[in-house]
Write a structure and sequence with these properties.
heterodimer, A: mainly alpha, B: mainly alpha, two-stranded antiparallel ribbon, 8 helices, 2 strands
């Protein structure tokens, strides 16, 4: 990791400069203070992403060809699958999200990052926690609760790491130099406060003073859904609220709309989760409440979507050039798709067919990947050049990453959704033998493997590109890397 | 938004509201259930599992079996679970009060296992009674040691054991496609030991044929873990009637089955 001495595009000339230049120096200083921790978070996240994708591909192949690597105890599907999900959630999504959040917080609070070493230590511990947890899962020591498969000792390490990391957020927020709290900050502060509550509440109720019987399932679904919405989802939405206006150079269309979107998001999405237990051994009101909340999430989705759309208005041609914008807008649009699918499969009449099928996996993938990860990729394309002082080397590689990821996740969602409906309608007809209904989705599962391979390509391309940047091999240029050559110089994106 | 106080307050309130509604209130409602019993205090259901079955639950969990197999029967009006003979009645919270972790499952790549143990043919239940139906043998705490002896699988080489017997479960776990040709379940070879036959063939050796069979002079025997796993699988039984759930079939057959098991 060299190129440490390059702050930003030559900010320092002399003292008698306009205010905009002073601002630039200030930004360069802030960026310099976040450089080390954020890059460590990103580098770890990308390594986890690669490992996770490789393991996911193995798991995907095993689903339709059960003999594949299956005779080794730690590669049996029942261990590979949770290992992959936990690597994805805690290794990739959480680490990359925290990296982006640290950078955004410092920029928005207009304050340098204090005690960066604390965060670096936190990142190291977090990596250790994910590593130990994944090892435990592969060794056959998973706990049996969704997204909490890490044994308590690994979770404890994660929690300690998290408190180290969170201390900066409180510090930065405390020392912020602007009265106005921007929309992105609402989401980030929310995510950083909700996560420890959520994580410790779930651990208390499952491991320390365990609740009885089926309540464990309720708590673990409550946790998993809130982790997806209130932790990852909040970081993703907050990031989109920063990146879209920033790249196109216009303020957010409506602050008021954003506030409505934020509070309805907090209120309704936190009540979802139980719809995944539909018709299970629970009081019906719990499930109905969650279905109602899922339907009500249309309100935040519509307001956020409308707000982004109005901000973007007349600037859609910029999607041709800016990598950040393209990834972020794809992610923001996927948020709408993700929620629409969520509403659809939660309705009792539909759940009758898709409950217990691959359709619910498609829903999770849409949220984790098409919505969240794509926005985070976008933010990395924006932030990394500002940290290493170079621009991305090849526009073509960014394009390859984008299209492989889009086709990959698109194909995967389609395959799993269609496969889920086929599987579900077969399962729902008692005249069809169960094994027959399973055989009918094998073609879809093979299609999913192709999707995984596309994602594998996307992630290796991205990791290679990131490594180039890390080792100072980025372009030394004053304009950002565009996806396509600019047709009209006047339309240059103010990236 | 100005000032951080309304923000923090709002964040706290929304989160607390969700926790209260989806975790705390339901916990008051269904988090402190007791087993049911009849007037004389006998026929207690459910009973805690012990010994090998409980150990088997850990192996079931550790190998992620619950990712593909659910353990919940949905009501008749909303699914075909009962028509598929996965149970006589829907599952209720009381069925799970002793389970930790609770393994309701979330996808069905394989069939539901709520009542797998009930499928064991009655004549096989005679030998490892505590393993196959710990629910049916209340009070006998030292019982779990018994199945180690595993008297049942008298080898008749070449023949596939009768479905859902202990021997069948072992063969199914070791070579799923040898008992169900289009199964996509992974094979759990690592729960079995392949060893050279010294002297006589072991009583509990698997009766494998074709490509799954070990070379001549070798045998495949279940490890202790595999035996625990099978004991757990054979203990899965929600057929006992519950006061709060209407049973699909008249309550007589499950009750009769229970009596026979005892």
């Amino acid at each position: 990791m060299d190129a440490v001495e390059v702050p930003l595009k030559a900010p320092s000339f002399s003292a008698d400069v306009p205010a905009s230049e002073i601002e630039q120096v200030e930004r360069a200083l802030i960026d310099a203070s976040t450089r080390l921790p954020v890059l460590i978070f990103y580098a770890s996240a990308i390594l986890w992403l690669l490992l996770g994708t490789v393991i996911a591909t193995v798991g995907s192949i095993q689903l339709h060809s059960p003999g594949f690597l299956g005779n080794i105890s730690f590669l049996t599907w029942g261990r590979v699958h949770p290992a992959e999900m936990n690597i994805f959630v805690y290794g990739w999504a959480s680490m990359a999200g925290m990296g982006t959040a640290i950078w955004l917080m410092a920029r928005l609070c207009r304050t340098v990052l204090r005690h960066p070493l604390l965060i670096v230590a936190g990142a190291g511990l977090w990596n250790l926690g994910v590593f130990l947890g994944t090892g435990a899962i592969l060794a056959g020591d998973q706990t049996g609760y969704q997204w909490l498969e890490f044994p308590p000792y690994a979770a404890l390490i994660l929690f300690v790491a998290y408190s180290l990391i969170m201390s900066w957020a409180v510090l930065m927020f405390r020392f912020r130099r602007s009265d106005q709290i921007y929309i992105t900050q609402w989401y980030l502060v929310a995510a950083f406060l909700w996560f420890p509550w959520l994580y410790s509440a779930a651990h208390l109720m499952l491991f320390v003073v365990p609740v009885q019987g089926v309540m464990q399932a309720a708590v673990s679904w409550w946790f998993a859904n809130n982790l997806l919405f209130l932790w990852l989802g909040a970081i993703g939405l907050g990031t989109a609220y920063y990146m879209i206006p920033k790249v196109i150079g216009r303020p957010v269309h409506s602050y008021h709309l954003a506030a409505i979107g934020f509070w309805t998001f907090a209120l309704f999405s936190s009540w979802t989760g139980m719809q995944r237990l539909v018709d299970g051994p629970f009081p019906a009101w719990m499930i109905t409440a969650s279905i109602a909340a899922t339907i009500l999430t249309i309100i935040p989705v519509a307001t956020v979507g409308l707000n982004h759309h109005m901000t973007m208005a007349d600037n859609f041609q910029l999607l041709r050039y800016s990598p950040t914008l393209r990834f972020t807008v794809f992610g923001a649009m996927s948020y709408t798709v993700f929620s629409a699918v969520g509403v659809l499969i939660s309705l009792r009449s539909v759940a009758r067919y898709v409950h217990f099928t691959e359709a619910s996996v498609a829903y999770t993938q849409l949220g984790l990947y098409a919505f969240y990860s794509m926005i985070i990729f976008g933010s990395m394309y924006y932030i990394v050049p500002r940290l290493v002082g170079r621009e991305w080397r090849y526009g073509s590689l960014i394009k390859l990453h984008f299209w492989a990821a889009v086709y990959g996740i698109g194909l995967m969602s389609l395959m799993l959704l269609a496969g889920g409906f086929v599987q579900g309608s077969g399962m729902n007809d008692p005249a069809i033998a169960f094994s027959e209904s399973m055989q009918s989705i094998l073609p879809y599962l093979r299609g999913r493997t192709i999707a995984e391979i596309l994602l594998l390509v996307a992630h290796f391309v991205f990791a290679f590109h990131f490594a180039l940047m890390l080792f100072g091999l980025g372009r030394n240029a004053s304009v950002p890397t565009f996806l396509n050559p600019l047709e009209d110089e006047g339309e240059e994106a103010p990236v | 938004m100005k000032g951080w106080k309304p923000l923090f307050l709002g964040l706290f309130a929304t989160f607390a509201f969700s926790w209260l509604g989806l975790a705390l209130v339901p916990n008051f409602q269904i988090g402190h259930l007791d087993p049911q019993s009849d007037e004389e205090g006998t026929d207690v259901y459910p009973m805690p599992q012990s010994g090998m079955a409980e150990r088997g639950r850990k192996i079931y969990t550790g190998n992620g079996c619950y990712y593909c197999h659910t353990q919940q029967v949905r009501p008749e009006y909303s699914s075909s679970d009962i028509a598929r003979k996965w149970g006589d009645r829907r599952s209720a919270p009381r069925d799970y009060i002793f389970e930790r972790p609770v393994l309701l499952g979330r996808t069905r790549i394989g069939p539901d296992l709520s009542n797998l143990g009930k499928l064991t043919p009655p004549d096989d239940q005679s030998s490892p009674a505590p393993a196959s139906s710990p629910v049916g043998s209340p009070g006998a705490s030292p019982a779990p040691a018994a199945p180690v002896a595993s008297l049942d699988s008298r080898p008749t080489p070449g023949a596939t054991p009768a479905p859902y017997t202990e021997g069948w479960h072992h063969q199914h776990l070791y070579a799923p496609r040898s008992v169900s040709s289009d199964s996509i379940m992974p094979a759990y070879h690592f729960l079995y030991e392949k060893r050279r036959i010294s002297g006589n063939r072991s009583d509990d050796a698997l009766m494998l044929t074709g490509e799954d069979a070990p070379p001549v002079g070798w045998e495949v025997v279940p490890s202790y873990e595999a035996k625990c796993l099978v004991a757990y699988l054979m203990s899965l039984d929600q057929s006992h009637s519950l006061k709060e759930v209407k049973s699909n079939t008249p309550p007589a057959p499950p009750a009769a089955g229970k009596a026979a098991a005892k």
